[in-house]
Design a protein that fits this description.
Blueprint: H1 5-28, E1 43-47, H2 50-53, H3 82-85, H4 90-98, H5 112-126, E2 130-134, H6 137-140, H7 151-166, E3 170-176, H8 182-188, H9 195-210, E4 217-221, H10 231-235, H11 246-270, E5 275-281, E6 284-287, H12 292-314, H13 320-327, H14 338-344, E7 349-353, E8 357-360, E9 370-373, E10 376-379, E11 385-386, E12 392-393, H15 395-409, E13 413-417, H16 435-453, E14 458-461, E15 484-486, E16 498-500, H17 502-512, H18 516-519
Parallel strand pairs: 1-2, 1-14, 2-3, 3-4, 4-5, 5-7, 6-8, 7-13, 13-14
Antiparallel strand pairs: 9-10, 11-12, 15-16
Helix pairs in contact: 5-7, 9-11, 11-14, 15-16
């Protein structure tokens, strides 16, 4: 029997509307079935660092750290890196530590020390699978070389990790994130002194042993390549003549390579399930033109950037190092057994920060407009837009970076910093509408998925400054990254109360759907 056409259309319309209503209800309940998602077990979360977030610089037995000497950069100087990269001397450090009138925002950060329960509860509300934080070395060993650790400091991190465990959040812990004890600088001259290896290893063994059942994922040194830009920030180095010495800087990073491998050895001996990674500030560069000279310049930039991960991931110094050291007058002393230690204990995974890309040109004078970046200045890419601070926004560059790094190393990757520093406005009703941040993150997450489809093994994603914190380079609060707003200004005025931005609820949905709300 033939069914009339109008009846067929009516039945089809009914089925279509039933399906659409089902999809809408599933979406509203947070359980929409998606065609595209990130891999099961993907570690969504957010990232912070003790030196910019924790505060309480002189409480709980904590000693002064190099970050506590970072004075706030004047607004007119915030788009250049001169203050951040300026060489430090003993006189400058001693003055800063004893200065009670200057503005040192990292000393109070965002007051995580007193508000960690509230902050972690907010992360749980968003659905975090992981939370990246760092341990302040000087909270455990106040001078860096103390005979015994500070129990009050150890207990603080016990409390933090226990709070994470209460919500099922996996900590991702950085051992050294721009917060070396000042005593290491003043009494040892920083990481150029080989004795600091043993001091760090003692610190690493202390916390790895203490927290082995609470923390699975560890990073040794944050953005280890910062040593090539600021010897003081990266390695507590002092330069009494006011000029950075490349030999000292690369000697210091060699000692960090050895120390990182020894920390990895300790972690694996304690528990083979512990995973230790390295962390690089990735500086993806494009040749300015097809001119072979520009292409070669891009290769040189890559060598300078990836030297640090080549050593820590591959377990050996790359061949191009010999020429780079020779042409730059760099002399590094290798003690017997150093290279064997580095070779025997490479990292388990590679993590990195990605904020922007850059342009490589053999003849910089032939270039166009300049722009700022993550610890760098360079030529602007005319195909990209820029943030309020001049950092160019390049989501596809993240996919390029992921593919390049995975092709090079063939080990799991982890994006542990990414995000948009911007000026946020609090409306009269207390709301913060940060659609620009959502747009930035959405575009980068889409490219992460594309890289996974390309075959990249990506462990997780922790956008930087999930709660507003003090800027690493300028020590300002105005440059905000967070999903959570902190009521504090650049001078430390305010209640420090937390409030949710629009991006908080958006990221909550991203995690709930495992990226499906973006990808479908």
């Amino acid at each position: 029997m033939l069914i009339p056409l109008d009846v067929c259309l009516l039945e089809f319309t009914f089925l279509l509307w039933s399906f659409l209503i089902f999809r809408i209800r599933r979406k509203e309940s947070g359980f929409i079935m998606t065609d595209k998602q990130f891999p099961k077990g993907f570690l969504w979360g957010g990232a912070t660092a003790a030196n910019q977030f924790e505060g309480a610089w002189n409480e709980g037995g904590r000693g002064p750290a190099t970050s506590d000497t970072a004075i706030a950069v004047k607004p007119e100087d915030r788009k250049n890196m001169e203050e951040f990269a300026a060489p430090m001397t003993r006189e400058k450090v001693e003055f800063a530590i004893n200065d009670t009138e200057g503005l040192y925002p990292k000393r109070w950060g965002s007051d995580f020390y007193h508000r960690y329960k509230e902050d972690i509860a907010l992360y749980a509300e968003m659905g975090f699978k992981t939370f990246r934080l760092s341990i302040a070395w000087s909270r455990i060993f106040p001078n860096g070389d103390d005979a015994q650790p500070n129990e009050e400091g150890l207990q603080f991190y016990d409390n933090v990790f226990d709070e994470c465990a209460k919500y099922g959040i996996e900590p991702l812990v950085t051992l050294s994130h721009y917060e070396t004890p000042v005593g290491i600088a003043l009494n040892y001259g920083g990481w150029k002194n080989r004795k600091v290896i043993d001091l760090f290893v003692n610190y690493a063994r202390t916390v790895l042993t203490r927290y082995q059942d609470k923390v699975k994922y560890w990073l040794t040194f944050n953005e280890i390549n910062i040593m090539g830009i600021s010897g003081y920030v990266g390695g507590a180095l002092l330069f009494e003549d006011g000029k950075q010495n490349l030999s000292d800087m690369y000697q210091a990073v060699h000692h960090q390579f050895v120390a990182s491998s020894l920390a990895t050895k300790i972690a694996h001996e304690l528990n083979p399930e512990l995973k230790v990674g390295m962390m690089l500030a990735r500086m993806q560069a494009y040749p300015a033109t097809p001119n072979p000279a520009d292409v070669m310049e891009e290769i040189k930039r890559d060598h300078e950037n990836l030297f640090f991960s080549d050593v820590q991931v591959r377990g050996k110094y790359p061949a191009y190092t010999k020429r780079f050291f020779k042409e730059n007058g760099i002399e590094v002393i290798f003690e017997e057994g150093d290279l064997e230690i580095i070779a025997q204990y490479p990292v388990d995974f590679m993590s990195f920060s990605y904020y922007m890309s850059s342009v490589a040109r053999h003849n910089p004078e032939a270039g166009g407009e300049s722009t700022a970046g993550n610890f760098s200045l360079g030529e602007a890419n005319p195909y990209l837009e820029a943030s309020d601070w001049g950092w160019q926004i390049d989501p596809i560059g993240l996919r390029i970076t992921l593919n390049n790094l995975y092709d090079r190393y063939q080990i799991p990757l982890f994006i542990v910093e990414n995000g948009l520093g911007a000026l946020d406005t609090v409306e009269e009703d207390g709301s913060i509408h940060d659609s620009y941040r959502i747009d930035y993150l959405k575009a980068h997450i889409e490219q992460m998925y594309e890289a996974i489809e390309d075959g990249v093994e990506l462990m997780g994603y922790t956008p930087w400054g999930c709660t507003d914190l003090v800027s690493a380079s300028t020590s300002e609060m105005s440059k905000r990254y967070g999903f959570v707003y902190v009521d504090a200004d650049d001078e430390g005025n305010g209640t420090f109360d937390r409030s949710r931005k629009d991006s908080f609820f958006w990221y909550q949905d991203v995690i709930k759907t495992n990226g499906g709300n973006i990808l479908n």
